[in-house]
UniProtKB/TrEMBL annotation, chain A:
<protein>
    <submittedName>
        <fullName>Peptide/nickel transport system permease protein</fullName>
    </submittedName>
</protein>
<feature type="transmembrane region" description="Helical">
    <location>
        <begin position="138"/>
        <end position="165"/>
    </location>
</feature>
<dbReference type="Pfam" id="PF19300">
    <property type="entry name" value="BPD_transp_1_N"/>
</dbReference>
<feature type="domain" description="ABC transmembrane type-1">
    <location>
        <begin position="100"/>
        <end position="300"/>
    </location>
</feature>
<feature type="transmembrane region" description="Helical">
    <location>
        <begin position="12"/>
        <end position="32"/>
    </location>
</feature>
<dbReference type="InterPro" id="IPR045621">
    <property type="entry name" value="BPD_transp_1_N"/>
</dbReference>
<dbReference type="GO" id="GO:0071916">
    <property type="term" value="F:dipeptide transmembrane transporter activity"/>
</dbReference>
<feature type="transmembrane region" description="Helical">
    <location>
        <begin position="277"/>
        <end position="296"/>
    </location>
</feature>
<keyword id="KW-1003">Cell membrane</keyword>
TrEMBL record, chain B:
<keyword id="KW-0732">Signal</keyword>
<dbReference type="GO" id="GO:0030313">
    <property type="term" value="C:cell envelope"/>
</dbReference>
<dbReference type="GO" id="GO:0043190">
    <property type="term" value="C:ATP-binding cassette (ABC) transporter complex"/>
</dbReference>
<feature type="signal peptide">
    <location>
        <begin position="1"/>
        <end position="23"/>
    </location>
</feature>
<comment type="similarity">
    <text>Belongs to the bacterial solute-binding protein 5 family.</text>
</comment>
<dbReference type="GO" id="GO:0015833">
    <property type="term" value="P:peptide transport"/>
</dbReference>
<feature type="region of interest" description="Disordered">
    <location>
        <begin position="28"/>
        <end position="49"/>
    </location>
</feature>
<dbReference type="InterPro" id="IPR039424">
    <property type="entry name" value="SBP_5"/>
</dbReference>
<dbReference type="Pfam" id="PF00496">
    <property type="entry name" value="SBP_bac_5"/>
</dbReference>
C-alpha cells in the first residue's frame, strides 16, 4: 500500500476516534451529579435565584433537548470553539493555551529523564550477572508500580525537607522542575527499561552481534551499534503510550508540586463541574495521544515499510 | 437609638486594629519575641493557601471563605469587630438606627480613596448593595446578608440611608463581613470577568496580577488611609511591599515549603502538623471562624431521627471527647454550643453531651427498635436502623473524616448501621438537596448570632432554586421561628441576648445537633513573620501590621 494512502487512512481513523471520544465525554458528563446551571452561578452550594439559574440555562442552551445540545456541541467543536469556562468566565481555549506550555515542558523533560534512566538501567542489567539481572527486574517492577503521589511526597521529604537541596514548590525555576519531572519519570522509566532490557538481551545474543564480535568489534561497539539500536525501536513504539501516561500523571504531579498546568486545571474543573473545561482538556489529551501515535507509526512506517503493511516479520 | 458619638467610635475602632484576641495563639509565643525590635518596612510576604483557587477575587461573587481570606487584604468593610467582639464602624464613621428599626443611616469616614483614585462617597454604599442584589453578580453569602435592604437613599456625599423591609439588628454585623466589602462603583460597573480578576477597593494592599493556578500578586497601596486613628503608626502604609498569595493544594507540600522557608505562612494547617510545628520554631495562629460551630446535624424530617429518643441515643453512643483528643490532639477544644466560641451570645450546655452506651441502648429499646437482624443491627417493624452520612472531602479534613469513622464504629455497638459516603463538594450538595442523609456536618460562617435563623428557622428548610437549604437538621418548631424573628428585630440588646439563648436551648435540648468544635482555621508561620494576630470580623488574618525581620 502506498504510504500516502496509508497516512490518509490513519488520519481518517483518528478523526473518527476523536468524534467517538467527544461523544463519550458528552454522555459521561451528563451522568455526573450536580446542576450545570449551579456551577455557572457561583459553584456548589450556590443560592442563586430562580431567575439567575434560568438565565444561565438559557444562555448555555441547557433547556434544549439532549440531541439539540449534542448537535450544538459537535458543531462548535468542529469549528474549534471549546466554549467558555463556567467557573473562570474565560474561553476554554484561552485557559488551555495558558496552561499547555507548563504541562508540555513537564512531560517532555520527564520523558527525556525516563529515557535516560531506562537506558542506564537496561544497559547495566544487560551486562550483569544473572543475580544482577534479577535485581534489575525487581527495581524496574517497583519503579513502574510506585504511585506518583507517594513518590512526590517522598522526594519532597528527602530533597526539600531533609537535605534542603531542592524547593518543594515549583515556581518556574530550573531547580523547581527537577522534583516534579523526576516524580513523573521514575514510574515511566520502569516500564521503558523492562522493554529495552529484553530487546537488548536478545540483540546482544543474536547472530549479528556474534558476527560483529567475530569481526573484532569491541563489546562497547557491539552494544551501541547493534544492541541499543535494536532495543530502542520497541521503546519508541511505547512513546505514544508514555506521552499519554505522563499527561495523566501530570494531574497528580502538578497538584503535589503546586505547578500550574492542564492536569491541575482538569482536576479543578471536575470538582467544580466546569463542563466546558473538562470537555476541552479531555478532548485535547485524546488529540495529543492520537497525534503522537500517528507520528510514531509514521516514523516506523518509514523505517520499516513492512510493518506498516501489517506483514511484519 | 443605637447612636454612638463619633469620638467614642474612634476609640472602639482603634481597639479593633489593636487586634482581635485570638484563642490558642498563646503557644506560639516562642517565635513572637518582643526582642524582634521595631517594625521594619519592606519585603514580600509569601503566603501559601491550601484552598481551591477562587473563581473570582471579588467576594460579592458567590461568597466563600477563601475569597474572604484574600479579599481581607485589599477590600474593607463598613463595619468591623473590636477585640471584645463588638461591632464597630470601619469605613463608616458612625451609624444610627431609626426608632422603628427600618432605617439605618450610615455616614462614611471622609478622605478615603479607592485604588483607582476615586473618593469613597455614599454613592459607593448604594452601588455595592445594588451589586450584591443584582442576580448577574451571582452572590450567595452577601446577597443573604443584605436581603432586608429595600432601598439605599443618598442623603449627602458621605451619608446614606438604608431602608429595610423589616428591622434587622444584625445588619451592621452583616456589613462587617468581607462578602459585603465596599468596592469602587466604577470598578463594579465593569464586566464580571474584569471585576473578578482585579477588584478595586480601599484596603492596605491592592491586586496587581493573577498567575492562574500559581499565585495572586498583591502590592502595597501607597495611598492607603487608615480609617481610624492608631497612635502606634508613624504613617498609614502597610509594612510589607506586597503579598504573594501562592496556591499549594497539598497539605504535605505546603508544610514542607514552610519548613524549608520557601513560604512564610500556610493556612489550612492540619492537627498533626500543628503538633509537630510546636517544637520546630514555627508560630501558630488559631483563628476560629465566627457563626456556627462545627457540628453534626441530625435530620429530624425522616426516620429514624424524627424520633427524639433515637437522636439522643446516637449522641449517647458516640465518644466525641475521646475522638477529638486522639485525632486533633490539643488543637480543637470541644464545643457544646451551636455557635462558635467567638460569638459572645453563644450558649453552651456541656451537661447535655456525654457518652453512655447503656443509656443509648435503653433509649433505642424505649423507641421500639428492639429486634435485631443477623448483623446485630436493630430493627423495628421490619425496618433496619440505618443512618446515612454524606461527608464532603472538601470541608471535612482527614482528622474529621477519621472522627466520623470512629462514630460509625461506636454507633454500631448499640445497633445502628451507619454509612459514611465520602463525596466531593458538588455531589455532597446534591445528596443534601435530594434529602439523602440522616446526619451531616455542614459548616456555616457568618458574623453574629443571626446565623441561628438561617440554620434553624423552618423557612430555611425551603430549598433555594438550586436545591440548597441551610436548615439541615430540618428543625420545624413554630415557637422557635417566632423567637428567632423577634431576636433579629428587637432593638433591645438584653432582650436579643435572652431570645437567642432560649432559641439555642430549644435546639440543643431536643438533640437536633451534636456540637463538635469550632470551625477550624489554623495558620502556621516562620520566625521571620512579626506582628501576627489581627483578624477581620470573619476571622481572616490581616497583614497590615505584619512585617518581616529579614
Amino acid at each position: 500500500m502506498h504510504i500516502i494512502t496509508w497516512l490518509a487512512r490513519r488520519v481518517g481513523a483518528a478523526a473518527i476516534l476523536l468524534w467517538l471520544v467527544a461523544t463519550v465525554i458528552f454522555i459521561a458528563i451528563r451522568f455526573i451529579p450536580g446542576d450545570p446551571a449551579e456551577a455557572i452561578m457561583g459553584g456548589p452550594g450556590s443560592q442563586a435565584s430562580a431567575e439567575a439559574l434560568e438565565a444561565a440555562r438559557e444562555q448555555y442552551h441547557l433547556n434544549e433537548p439532549i440531541l439539540v445540545q449534542y448537535g450544538l456541541y459537535l458543531g462548535k467543536l468542529a469549528t474549534g470553539d471549546l466554549g467558555t469556562s463556567y467557573a473562570q468566565h474565560r474561553p476554554v481555549a484561552q485557559v488551555m493555551a495558558e496552561m499547555l506550555p507548563a504541562t508540555l515542558q513537564l512531560t517532555l523533560i520527564a520523558l527525556v529523564i525516563a529515557w535516560l534512566i531506562a537506558f542506564v538501567m537496561a544497559a547495566i542489567a544487560a551486562r550483569s550477572s544473572r543475580i544482577g539481572q534479577a535485581m534489575g527486574t525487581i527495581i524496574e517492577v517497583i519503579a513502574a508500580a510506585i504511585p506518583h503521589f507517594w513518590l512526590g511526597a517522598m522526594l519532597i521529604i528527602i530533597f526539600s525537607t531533609w537535605l534542603g537541596w531542592l524547593p518543594a514548590v515549583d515556581t518556574g525555576t530550573v531547580q523547581g522542575i527537577i522534583l516534579p519531572a523526576v516524580t513523573l519519570a521514575i514510574p515511566l522509566s520502569g516500564f521503558l527499561a523492562q522493554l529495552m532490557r529484553d530487546s537488548l538481551l536478545t540483540a546482544m545474543n543474536s547472530p549479528f552481534a556474534l558476527a560483529a564480535r567475530a569481526r573484532g568489534a569491541s563489546e562497547g561497539q557491539v552494544f551501541f551499534r547493534h544492541g541499543f539500536r535494536h532495543a530502542a525501536l520497541p521503546a519508541l513504539n511505547l512513546t505514544g503510550w508514555a506521552v499519554a501516561a505522563s499527561i495523566s500523571g501530570a494531574v497528580v504531579v502538578e497538584e503535589v508540586f503546586a505547578r500550574p498546568g492542564l492536569g491541575r486545571s482538569l482536576l479543578g474543573a471536575v470538582l467544580s463541574r466546569d463542563m466546558p473545561m473538562v470537555t476541552g482538556i479531555a478532548l485535547f489529551s485524546a488529540l495529543i495521544y492520537m497525534v503522537v501515535m500517528l507520528v510514531v507509526e509514521t516514523i516506523e512506517a518509514f523505517i520499516n515499510p513492512a510493518a506498516a503493511r501489517g506483514d511484519d516479520q | 437609638m443605637a447612636k454612638f458619638s463619633s469620638s467614642q467610635l474612634k476609640i472602639l475602632a482603634t481597639a479593633a486594629i489593636g487586634g482581635l484576641a485570638l484563642a490558642g495563639c498563646g503557644d506560639s509565643g516562642s517565635t513572637q519575641d518582643e526582642a524582634a525590635g521595631d517594625p521594619q518596612s519592606g519585603g514580600t510576604l509569601i503566603y501559601a493557601s491550601g484552598d481551591a483557587e477562587p473563581d473570582c477575587l471579588d467576594p460579592h461573587y458567590g461568597g466563600n471563605y477563601p475569597q474572604g481570606l484574600i479579599s481581607t487584604q485589599y477590600l474593607e468593610t463598613l463595619f468591623t469587630k473590636n477585640e471584645d467582639g463588638e461591632t464597630v464602624p470601619w469605613l463608616a464613621e458612625s451609624s444610627e438606627v431609626s426608632e422603628d428599626g427600618l432605617t439605618h443611616t450610615i455616614t462614611l469616614t471622609d478622605g478615603i480613596t479607592f485604588h483607582d483614585g476615586t473618593p469613597l462617597t455614599s454613592e459607593a454604599i448604594k452601588a455595592n448593595i445594588e451589586h450584591l442584589q443584582d442576580p448577574d453578580t451571582a452572590s450567595s453569602t452577601g446577597f443573604l446578608a443584605v436581603q432586608k435592604v429595600e432601598e439605599v437613599e443618598l442623603v449627602d456625599d458621605l451619608t446614606a440611608e438604608l431602608h429595610l423591609s423589616a428591622p434587622d439588628n444584625a445588619l451592621e454585623e452583616s456589613l462587617s463581613m468581607h462578602w459585603t466589602a465596599i468596592q469602587s462603583p466604577d470598578a463594579l460597573a465593569r464586566d464580571v470577568q474584569e471585576n473578578c480578576e482585579a477588584p478595586i477597593g480601599t484596603g492596605p494592599f491592592q491586586v496587581d496580577s493573577w498567575d492562574r493556578e500559581q499565585q495572586i500578586n498583591l502590592v502595597r497601596n501607597e495611598d492607603y488611609v487608615l480609617p481610624v486613628e492608631d497612635p502606634e503608626r508613624e504613617n498609614d502604609l502597610a509594612y510589607l511591599d506586597g503579598i504573594t498569595w501562592r496556591l499549594i493544594p497539598e497539605a504535605a507540600t505546603r508544610y514542607a515549603a514552610l519548613q524549608s522557608g520557601e513560604v512564610h505562612i500556610i493556612d489550612n494547617a492540619q492537627p498533626d502538623t500543628i503538633q509537630s510545628a510546636d517544637n520546630a520554631n514555627i508560630g501558630h495562629l488559631d483563628s476560629p471562624r465566627p457563626g456556627a460551630s462545627n457540628r453534626i446535624e441530625l435530620n429530624s424530617s425522616q426516620a429514624p431521627f424524627d424520633d427524639q429518643l433515637v437522636r439522643e441515643a446516637f449522641i449517647r453512643a458516640v465518644d466525641v471527647d475521646g475522638g477529638i483528643q486522639a485525632l486533633f490532639f490539643d488543637t480543637a477544644p470541644r464545643s457544646h454550643s451551636l455557635l462558635s466560641s467567638v460569638e459572645s451570645l453563644g450558649y453552651s450546655d456541656d451537661a447535655l453531651f456525654y457518652r453512655d452506651v447503656d443509656e443509648a441502648n435503653d433509649l433505642l429499646d424505649e423507641a421500639g427498635w428492639t429486634d435485631r437482624d443477623d448483623d446485630d443491627v436493630r430493627m423495628k417493624d421490619g425496618e433496619r436502623l440505618e443512618i446515612v452520612m454524606p461527608v464532603s472531602t472538601n470541608q471535612s479534613v482527614p482528622a474529621e473524616q477519621s472522627l466520623f469513622e470512629q462514630f460509625q464504629a461506636q454507633a454500631s455497638e448499640v445497633g445502628f448501621d451507619m454509612q459514611i459516603n465520602l463525596l466531593d463538594l458538588s455531589s455532597w450538595y446534591a445528596a443534601l438537596a435530594e434529602h439523602n442523609y440522616n446526619l451531616v456536618s455542614a459548616p456555616y460562617t457568618k458574623v453574629g448570632p443571626s446565623v441561628l435563623r438561617i440554620l434553624y428557622h423552618s423557612s430555611s428548610i425551603e430549598p433555594a432554586p438550586s436545591g440548597y437549604f441551610a436548615n439541615n437538621a430540618q428543625v420545624d418548631i413554630p415557637e422557635l421561628d417566632e423567637i428567632l424573628i423577634q431576636a433579629e428585630e428587637t432593638p433591645d440588646g438584653a432582650e436579643r441576648a435572652d431570645l437567642y439563648e432560649q432559641a439555642q436551648q430549644m435546639v440543643l435540648e431536643d438533640f437536633y445537633v451534636l456540637p463538635l468544635y469550632d470551625q477550624q482555621n489554623h495558620f502556621l508561620y516562620t520566625a521571620d513573620v512579626q506582628g501576627m494576630g489581627e483578624a477581620s470580623a470573619i476571622a481572616a488574618p490581616e497583614y497590615y501590621n505584619v512585617w518581616l525581620t529579614q
